[in-house]
Protein: Fumarate hydratase
Amino acid sequence: MNRIPIRKVEEAAFEIMKRAAIDIPEDYKLGILEAQKKETGKLARFVIKAMQDNWDAATEDRRPMCADTGVPRYYVKVGNEASIENGFTAIERVLRKATADATTAIPLRPNRVHPLWRTDHNNNVGINAPEVEWTFEPDADWIDITTVHKGGLFGTDYRMLFPGDGIDGIKRFVLDTLIQFGKRGLACQPAIVGIGLGGSKDTCMNLGKQAACLRTVGNRNPDPKIAALEMELKDLGNSIGMSAMGFVGSSMVVDCHIEVGYTHTGGMPISLHCFCLSSRRATARIHPGGEIEYRTDPQWFTPYMRRETVEWNNA
Structure:
């Protein structure tokens, strides 16, 4: 069996760090173009045009498109048949090294500090940083590594709803949250909005963040009723009168993605996450032998990832 060379994992991790910081994914660019066509606010249209000019300049000059490069993190999808030179701990080691190297070389802003002592190693690496989340895929011998550079301060909220709150309660939470984000400058819109619904509290938060950061603009949940709710909440978010950088307009939400998990019978936890207007993500697939393919669609939410099938029933 051919093993995936660990040096290729490090090479790919560094490259996607660079791509995520500099190049805006095409799906988000197209989403912004559609929003621009419908935008009703004059100042908002001006800001959206300035955003696009900034993206073009960053790509041409090969430098980060935003001074705040967020808090880089990784999502790793491992094929069930994959074999990695030196094992899985070696992957985490080279992901941390690639982060430190990229912070200096690209450069990324060194945003990571100790929460109490404010110790800063100037490389975005420290205790539990960068985060690495894992999932698996059957019948595959490759590994996918995705990096996401998301702001780490605001743009996230959580609430414990109850089953009786229903869809109307979800809508109220989404409206309340987006209005507060817009009024207080807690989101960097136009944004992809991710909603986690159900699960335990930590699962709910993870699902919402992944929905915002790991699905592309235009991608719909496979459940048609959830897909319809995604579109309804997108339209609702764009009806509150806020747009780019808080100016009056109609482009608060570029797209809305919902991910769900089975939850406790007595509750309906919900989280909301706004990816910033950079929408910085990039993915590399490393094959046995070391071939690397790059893309901007993480392809994270596969049928296996959602585990939709119930394969057994209680008698």
